[in-house]
Amino acid sequence: MNDWDFHRIRRLPPYVMTEVNRMKAEQRARGVDIIDFGMGNPDQPTPPHIVDKLKEAASDPRAHRYSASRGIVGLRRAIAQYYDRRFGVHINEETEATVTLGSKEGLANLAQAITSPGDIILAPNPCYPIHAFGFILAGGSIRHLPLPEENFEERFLQTISSALHHSVPRPTGIVLNFPANPTGHCVGKEFYQEIVAICKRENVWVLSDLAYAEIYFDTPPPSILEAKGAKEVAVEFTSLSKTYNMPGWRIGFGVGNERLIGALCRIKSYLDYGAFTPVQVAAIAALNGPQDCVDDIRATYRERRDVLIEGLARCGWHVPAPQATMFVWAKIPERYHNLGSLDFTKRLIQEAGVAVAPGLGFGEFGDQHVRFGLVENKQRIRQAMKNMQSFLLET
Description:
The protein is α/β, with parallel strands linked by helices. Helix content is 44%, strand content 13%. The protein is built from 13 helices and twelve strands. Strands 2-8-7-6-5-3-4 form a seven-stranded mixed sheet, sandwiched between helices. A three-stranded antiparallel sheet has the order 9-12-11. A two-stranded parallel sheet has the order 1-10. The longest helix has 23 residues, at 292-314. The protein is globular.
């Protein structure tokens, strides 16, 4: 007996980062300093006023009892106020909002709530793995939507329309993630308006992942809920992980369509009692407190992005600068295309002491790319670029 005897495990491919992590561990065991851009794990501290609120709340013995699966009232109210301030969208805190253990948990459990065996879900490829595998684990089937490199919004809308027309049975839903992990693609309000119109006409749900709403370097990204009629078909998830450097806290939220939020809440009521109450109280302090810390976090990622892009260019590796997210999505230099992303990643570890995420880990259409997470400071980024020069510029 082994894992492959279990139905749901059989639907999960081997995790490509397992081999990368093994190689990193081997090199470190030999004393090699690996500069690691592989995981999108923020390295900066959580702002002090948020940590202080956690300590204060945790000192109350009553806070250590079971919490509320949907989230405490104060946090759902803070979520609604955030959407009103940031997007001009009214959210009913009682029926259109729920607290999640990060956006990943919300997406996965909503997939369990709305997916029947054989249902088709449309998902971008490449994409963050839970966008596809949350539905695969729920028994659904994924129709992959390749992401165009040019005229993005127009061509991606065409791809979506074609998939809706040709899929049998008709898709249950579509997953969107803008700003996108791993590619950094962004879209405007007009794109969302078109999506909402299409999905209302075709009777298809929309699940939007807005985890990088505040990690942008140009125009603030919109919410799909800003589109007219969006709450008739759409729900949106976001997280405090990247915005406030709180990845380990596991706190996020879902908002939007009352029916979808209700379905998620019902599933969650059987699975958890909600996040630890002091974490939720601290999340209120994050959303309602001073936001200059978010400006500082954004500025740090911008500086790191610029140092990385400039350093890659000096190595002869010309990569477009992302407009948002904490990632740089880089097409493998042409001379290494035949390697694919996994073998190219192994070469970088072995020959430059630099670790990245192979694009294959985000879907088959990502295999000619690698992803850099902006999780090393500027000095370490510059050192990584020096390490890579001889490898990338060798004749």
